[in-house]
Fold:
Amino acid sequence: MPSTPRASRARPSTIDGERPATGLLLTGGGARAAYQVGVLEAIADLRNACGEGGGPNPFPIITGTSAGAINAAALACGADHFDRAVRRIARVWRQFHASQIYGADSLSVMRSGARWLTLMSIGWALARWRRMRPQSLLDNKPLEKLLVKMVPLVRLPRLIRKGHLTALAVTASSYSSGEHVTFFETAGPVQPWVRSQRKAARDRITHEHLLASSAIPFIFPAKGIAVGDHTEYFGDGSMRQSAPIAPAIHLGAERILVIGAGRMHEPQGDAAANPTPTYPSLAQIAGHALSNIFLDALSVDVERVQRINQTLSLIPPEVRSQSTLRPIELLVIAPSQRLDAVAARHVGDLPAPVRTMLGALGVTSNMADVRSAALASYLLFEAGYTQELMALGRADTLAMRAQVCRFFGWTDTGAEVQTKLHT
Structure:
């Protein structure tokens, strides 16, 4: 998708007097976030091919939601060495197993997912009498251990203080208040913002914030976070996120790279429709709901960007200079293929207990059953799937080589892109 400007409030035109303040937005999507890592690898490779390697962090402003918040925080914690940070993140995603994210063994699945299935079979009233109160379909305690290794947040304050990073922001949705909250950490004089049903809070980013932001509704448990003098319980930041690009703008970005986790527009007739329609399974309904949560808001916000861009272009420059509105360059990189279809090829890679549980909801191992694979596409933290998404992210980015170089202001020498980052 070509770069498009967006209106925002007036911001300083540069970070260091030479470069426009560049932001990165990593959206949500569970295991789909592997695609983002492939994009980042390609950007690192292109950066080196253009002779820009070894320079400052190309993304001084980093924002993320859900699994994208984890990737964003991991990248921010390596802001002093971009290539090395990308390698570290890619190493994790390239070797993924579901057991690193959630309990995938028989006992863990029995303790969490089986209770949900029991509720559907014996009824809520009887379940209440038996004191069955499951918090989520899956238990993501293993993710807590992974975050300690993958995201060394102890480095963040020093990196911000030394100027390697301007700001990091992650979003989460409060079940307690119903508000969408962006937690941000920065050394700059940024005032928290408040909009309809969404607000910002300056805070020290912790692993609890990342667990909250990535807590897919129903699938992973909510996380309690101290807000002022009380505790609120938060879930996935993609819920009720009406303006995913906004935090980067509020934090001062003038150009933003957005990496999506799904196709921005599905071609007509590409819905993999069943020639003999049947009543949708629970898996199809859940997958549809998650796609609505994770994918639709970004498409709407990008369209809003284009409309505001068109409006600004009609305003004479001398009049626009007296306004607080300024254009912001936007580059969107999103999958060129349906990730549901990719997931359908890898459902069989899931651990047997998880596969059995999802099978009860209607997920099948039939590669042609794309609709039921939508739910699995968010939970397939398995190397075969994540590696294929990473390869797709890399290929999509290299196919946009000219646009990427133009966005960053790099001079494309035409040099062959090396892949040494991937070893």
